[in-house]
Amino acid sequence: MATKQDAYSASDIQVLEGMEAVRKRPGMYIGGTDQRGIHQLIFEPVDNAIDEFMAGFSSRVDILVDREGVVTVTDDGRGIPVDKHKATGVSALETVMTTLHAGGKFGGKAYSVSSGLHGVGVSAVNALSEWLTVDVYRNKRHYTQKFAQGQPVSKLKSTALSESDEAKTGTVITFKPDIGIFGEISYEFSVLSQRFKEIAYLNKGFTVHFRNEWQAELFESEPQEVTYLFEGGIAEFVESLNKTRNPLHKKPVYIEKKIETTYVETALQWNDGFSESVFAFANTINNIDGGSHITGIRAAITRVLNDYGRKEKLIKEGEENLAGEDTRAGLAAIVSVKIPEPQFEGQTKRKLNNPEVRPHVEIVVAEALQMHLEDNPQDAKRIIEKCVVSQRARDAARKARELITRKNAMDTGALPGKLADCSDKNPENCELYIVEGDSAGGTAKMGRDRSNQAVLPLRGKILNVEKAREDKMLSHEEIKALIIAIGAGLGEDFDLAKLRYHRIIIMTDADVDGQHIRTLLLTFFFRNMFPLIANGHLYIAQPPLYKVTSGRKQRWIIDEADLEKQIAEFSGEGAKKSYSVQRYKGLGEMSAEQLWDTTLDPTSRTLLRVETQDAAMADELFSLLMGDVVPPRREFIESHALEADVDA
Length: 648
Fold this sequence. Notes:
Elements: H1 4-7, H2 18-24, H3 27-30, H4 35-54, E1 60-65, E2 71-75, H5 92-98, H6 121-127, E3 129-138, E4 141-148, E5 151-152, E6 157-160, E7 170-177, H7 179-182, H8 189-202, E8 207-212, E9 224-228, H9 234-241, E10 253-259, E11 262-270, E12 277-282, E13 285-286, H10 292-311, H11 324-328, E14 331-338, H12 357-375, H13 377-409, E15 431-436, H14 438-447, E16 453-458, H15 470-474, H16 477-486, E17 503-507, H17 512-528, H18 530-534, E18 538-541, E19 546-550, E20 553-557, H19 560-572, E21 580-583, H20 592-600, E22 607-609, H21 615-626, H22 630-640
Parallel strand pairs: 1-8, 12-14, 15-16, 15-17, 17-18
Antiparallel strand pairs: 1-2, 2-7, 3-4, 3-7, 4-5, 4-6, 8-9, 10-11, 11-14, 12-13, 18-22, 19-20, 19-21
Helix pairs in contact: 2-6, 4-6, 10-12, 12-13, 13-16, 14-20
């Protein structure tokens, strides 16, 4: 009798190669098959255009998303080579488009610096497109070839350019994402344009033009269109980060310099706030977890400010040195390095590991900052005085932190009295609901699953941490309760390994006050517990606004659009059934059973995971909406007023 073991043979082993592997496991190559994955398809050929610019052969890239969702990326670089490739026997163009790990980025001859790493970019785009066309202009000729789902469907064709176009060079890649892979095709103009803006900042003198015609006809609107060109590069980037703050000195400290094979570009500008906004890039890739370049810039700033402060007696004898966190309070900075062989931690490139980059960055930053302080003594005085104030505030905050740490180290009896904890002690199974008000908190405590759902009700609105020093923040009772309940610390000391719940869920009312409380909480988490967001532990609950009842049928409705659909459905049934609509202004109006059915039950609830695709954009937005500077906030509100969905 054959056993299951006998039936398992070599014929069961599936070997996936090339384009087939990409189509079978797209997430391994572009991160997923959601909207973010579709955006990545656009970024890949744009990255190739950046590589041409960094090599000195391109000046602009044009991106078009047309009404049908077809994407066209055009650069004015050298054009993909079209001569026969020795290893594959077909043209270099076809090799690049159909072979993984093929490109001009490995040997170091075509590109000394590249934003790509694995050589799967444009070939993955080809594999995941319903169809793709490449047009190349070089050697006074126009070359074109068509592909479908990663495979060539035409030979490489060549025609002579007219005499007036003979000087034209570049590559045009046009593709339509495969709906069979992605299910639904959609593009987010704000996300795409922000990334293109970032690219332009990081490559001064490079023009990025983006036109989005997608769904313009559907919404009867004009196509969205932007052009970015920043001659000031990352110095302008830093100024944009500080536009909603009050800078302590007029112009950012800026320097660009090459040491050995590392090109370092950095810009720094302090403001009168308390948040650190330092962002690091390697070969234009945003390393959100930092790395050797962040270590280098921090070491340089701390050393130079202490040395200058001692020399000029701005730090008095007998006073301790400024700590790193003191020198970075209110600092907005960008550090961008371009290196031949970047070593990233993981496929997502979140952290740069090249050890040689740290001393190179430290030398360059120290030189620029020292020179600025010497040449601008008034700027130097304002910066160091601000750091000293931060140091004193840190001492007060340290005492508050120690109190919180001692409470965390004690048994569960030291947890906030208002916290209704769960019985399961495995953090992976547990979730914490942060609930607005005692009334809703009481209902949530009664309706929850006590085994793995904890509830922490908050009284009123928490402190706006964007405007507060850390010591003031840590003296706020509701914030202390949050920190103790979550158990992982905050700021640079935040430790995910100590997290008591792997799902932190904000659950507030759907009215304006509830939205404000949610925004205050998001500001707190973004500024003080960013790893929660970066690692996917923070969520927003979606309680219903309405209950529509018709006879024995009832439906819970999240928003106005769903309400209209449900009413239309009930109105269209039989002889237009009668129905009633109940509006829920707050969670406290629901019974415990209703709250479980709609918002707490894992089998039926809707949770939104809080994510940030661009930390610099999020930083700027939090500063804009929650900071002290009013005119930019007013301008933002006025320009977005028609988009707002405000509860009356």
